[in-house]
Structure formats: C-alpha cells, structure tokens
Amino acid sequence: MAQEWKKVALAYSGGLDTSIIIPWLKENYGCDVVAVVGNVGQHIDEEALTKKALATGASKIFIEDLTEEYIRDYAFEALKGNAKYEGAYLLGTATARPLIAKRLVEIALQEGCDAIAHGCTGKGNDQIRFEMAIRHFAPDMPIIAPWRIWDIEDREEEIRYAEARNIPLEITRETNYSKDENIWHLSHEGLDLEDPANEPDYNKILEWTATPEQAPDEPTYLTLSFEKGKPVAINGEKMGPVEIVSYLNEVGGKNGIGVDDIVENRLVGMKSRGVYENPAGAILYHTHRVLESLTLDRDLQHFQDTVGHELAKLIYVGQWFSPLRESISAFLEVSQANVTGEVKIKLYKGNIINAGVTSPYSLYDEAIVSFDDAKSYTHADATGYIKLYTLPTMIRAKMQDKHKE
Fold this sequence. Notes:
Layout: E1 7-11, H1 16-29, E2 32-39, H2 46-55, E3 60-65, H3 67-80, H4 92-110, E4 115-117, H5 126-137, E5 143-144, H6 155-164, E6 178-181, E7 186-189, H7 202-205, E8 220-227, E9 230-234, E10 237-238, H8 241-254, E11 259-265, E12 271-277, H9 279-295, H10 298-316, H11 323-335, E13 341-348, E14 351-358, H12 366-369, H13 381-389, H14 391-404
Parallel strand pairs: 1-2, 1-4, 2-3, 4-5
Antiparallel strand pairs: 6-7, 7-12, 8-9, 8-13, 9-10, 11-12, 13-14
Helix pairs in contact: 1-6, 3-4, 4-5, 8-9, 10-11
C-alpha cells in the first residue's frame, strides 16, 4: 500500500469481516488498530469480544453502550414518522449506523487516530451510511474500506483468510448467513435467501420469533400507552425505551409477530432479499398508526404519510445528519403533539389485531358519526357541499358534450 497510517479506528463487531480486517490492516499498513464496538442492544459477550480483538492484533478496544440513546433518539424518531422504507423495512440497520459512526469518530479523535476503517462491502448501503456520518463529524478524516480495495472476493475467501491466521469463527460454511443484530431487529441475508424463489426455512433462520405454527393457541392482549408519539407504558406500567422494546420483542416473538421477507432496492442500484425479525417494531408501528388515526385531522394524517415516506428514504440512504432530516424531526414535534393515548391489541399467531383505542385528544365524535342520532348532523347539508364539490366535473362534462356535437 502506498499510504501508511500510524493508528486506525475500526468499527468492530467481532464478526467475520471485522475479525480479518484487524490483521489485514496491520499487514498492509503497519498501523495500530483501535477496535470500537457500538453496542446498540445486540447480544455480545464483552469479555470474549475483548479477548478476540486483542488476540487478533488490536492494540485497544472500546465497547460503547449506545442502546438507550439509539432507541430514544433514533428508532423512536423514525417511529414518530411511521418511516418504513418501501413500505416494509423498519430501518433497523439504517437507524443504528449514524449513531455508531458518530461515536466511532469521537473515539478516533480522542485516541489520535489518523484514519478510520469499516467492514462494509462495496455492494451495500452501510458503506454510505457510515461514511456520510464520518464526513459530517470529521470531514477530513481518511476512510479505509478494505472490501473496496483488497483482493478477497467473497465470504469463502474470508473464511480461508481467517483460518490461515487461526482467527476463531462462530460460523460454518453451511450457516454463513450475513446477519445484523441490534435491539430493534435481526436481519438475515445470503445463502438460500439470495434466490427470491426460495421459501425461507424459518425453523432454521429465526432466532427471536416463533413461526405461527409454534405460537401459542391463546391470544395475548396488550395495552400500549403513548405520549406525543412515543411509547411510555405497557399495560399501565411505565417503562423506559429499552424496557419497552425488550418486553415487546419477547412477547411479540413468542406470538410470531414481526417477521418480514423483503426484496428491497439498495442505494447502489441492485435489489437484495432479506428476512427481518422485528417483533417490537412491528407492534409499535402498528399501534402508533392506530393512535394517529384517532388524533390527527385528515389533512395532517395524509401529509404525515408523505413525510414518513421521505423520512424513510433519508434514513435508508444515510442522510440522518442532514438539514432535511432535522427539519422533518422539527415537523414531527408539532404533528405528534396530540398523539397521546392508549391502544389495545391482540397478538395471535403472527397477527396484530386491534382491540380498542382511546385518547384525550380524540377527534372521533360518536354523536356525529352515529346512525342512531338524527339530531347532531343534518343530512341535507351535504347537498350544497356535493354540488360545489362536483362543479368542476360537471363543467368539464358539458364542455366535452359540446365538442361532440
């Protein structure tokens, strides 16, 4: 390599990619490697991870607990906007990357690193998400992306590289799914999933979630409480953000909630197929939307759909730290002001079934809507409204008839 770095901060997970990147960096750049783990709720053994990073050549490792901040300021912010990429993906990876990258930069600057490295492939979205955030907080920091420059071409070669250097692996060639886990979701890609014609073998793939066949035969009822668009309690018990998500992952997972098989359009232009487990996210998005249907007026609710679509695209393509995302969040502070109340649901074999919704800010007027109350609404008033509403259609029809003559 033409360039030599003295110290590089590596976004480290202990998985296959980043495990071999530590020795690769040292072999090719002769640098110290500072491993930085952003813990956003994934299941990790800190002692084992530390031992592995140091044994494979890292000079130091930081394991940063970002879980509370992640749920409170990132995942729940997307929830407030009903942000789903292409109407399906709950952005579990996309919401976590900006926060991890932010902390990575902070530690790199603190440790006097002269470059930052990540293990994202050249085919994926994460390379863009990481580098957008790195550029935001350290515009002049050099970035090393081994997947874009090394000679390793696939995961089989990665495994051989690791085996040649006695790097312990927790995977086999047969179970080598590409996974991303945090408290908000668990994703699975690769192997048989790369062919969209294949039905996923859920008995082999799923780790958080029961299949509908395995789920209990009795339904589970939950009541979720929201304040200003954010969940604050379950069944009347106040909980913090991490407690809420953890509880719903457990209960939702047992009931087979939140499994999505998605083909999505990556930013780099290709389509990819993955299976996502997000029990808590599925429940929270559903109940939040139900509460909005009661508390938002028609125009705001419809416009919120547009905002959510745009917010999802921004998050997906790595533009969390952008003026537009910040402006959308400012809008959400206003739009969610009255999204307060309780939503009751029934979980049953993969289904979320509505079981009632209440709010002190409800815009539902039973007296006006009721078929049994003739005094609160004068049906004849609709005549003038409809006449004016249909006026443009009537005028255009007359014009067309005129030109047929």
